[in-house]
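Write out the 3D structure for:
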Amino acid sequence: MKQFLSVTFLLLHSLLLLAQPNTAFDPQRTITADSARRSITELMGEMAKKHPGFYRYTSKPEFAHFIDSSLAAIKGPMDQLQYFRTIKPLIAKVRCVHTNVSLSGEYMDFLNKQQNMLPLDVYFIGEKAYISKNYSGNGAVPVGAELLSINGHSITAIRARLFEMIPSDGFNQTWKYQAINNRFAQAYRANYELSDSYKIRVATDQGEKEFDLAAVRNEVIPVPAIMDLGNKPRLSFSIKEAVGTLTIRSFGETDIKAGKQQFRKFIAGVFKELKEQHIQKLVIDLRNNTGGSDPNAVLLSRYLINQPFRYWDRIEVTEPFALSLKGSAKLIYGKPVKMDSVYLWRKSKFTREFDFYEVQQPEADVYTGKVVVLVNGACLSSCADLSAVLQYNKRALFVGEETGGGYQGNNSGLMPEAKLDFGLKVSIPLLKYVNAVDLHKNFGRGTLPDVVVQPALADRLKGNDVVLQTALKQLDD
């Protein structure tokens, strides 16, 4: 996701942190219903004041009703997991992928030491789910079979509940599918049920069957490469049969440096080579790119759009946040300017992170050939901004799934954390980015692909890249 600045003044002045006193970790510790209601009420009240996109997709009356209903449902003492599961759908109601809540590190360590994970990978297609990997040690569990229920809970009910818990931009669902398909067992444990055993029911060619599976530890289920690339390069480029393929797995400076690469130098070399070899067909693979540095994403756009253009339309902040900027913060970042009924963030003298509402000029080696961009639900934040700007400027054909990040922009930039009871942390973005696109198009949605490709279960099991195959065919048309 979008990288953010860790700024001390924001932690001190922009947000009531609701900090709780440090206590020794006890996984059985509870808080009273009154304490839970009070802390949740304070949190949502502060977020409504400082979060610039709090009512971007959910109306104030609807949000108030949802909060009241959630508070009324608290009937007694709550432990950390119950408290987390009460707050999570409230946070998701903001409909912002950068606004999230996490369990404390101590509690996650506690969970990971126990055998409580469903020993399966699960792949959802629409309303149905299929077993894609089996870590149970029971070879009779059929990989590829449809999963009907877990511990008596229907897959339909499980999917619906998980979707209520997972934040995404607007009304997007492709990111929610990515989140549960990438590591279903972890999402299920945190958001739905914690158990040391799982009874699953599956549909096979011979009819329905049930299996009793012992839970496994977290470490038994591998973290997918798309979630943790380690020190592998984030950038790659090749030319084959007069088609260039540029893969960008992250725009984040820290991520790219972990792979021992430099974004600006790498990208400059790519477009110089495309020009020198007269390559007129280019595939850019942005799948599973969760964002990162805005300057990197904007730089790529300048190599692809051959006329002056705008990237962002504006950056908004709330009035309480604008008025809270004082002293050194005001000196460094300037004071947001009120325009009509909103406060607009200004260009900073000390960082380029917020400059891109100005007119952008093409790079010297700007590419003018045919471009196909591959996207999916894990294309978030600055990756989604780039996708929207390229599509709006009619600079590429998009193949794959709707981007997980919003077409019209996102909330991010400066993101302090509020610390709650039990050590839970809530990330709260303070800047609302509005992309320079048609603001009446795709409201609450991502960039929609021109050619939709949903990989089938067989493609996932066999590792067939049908999205790339489709893209190459589009270049030949």
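The chain is about 35% helix and 20% strand.
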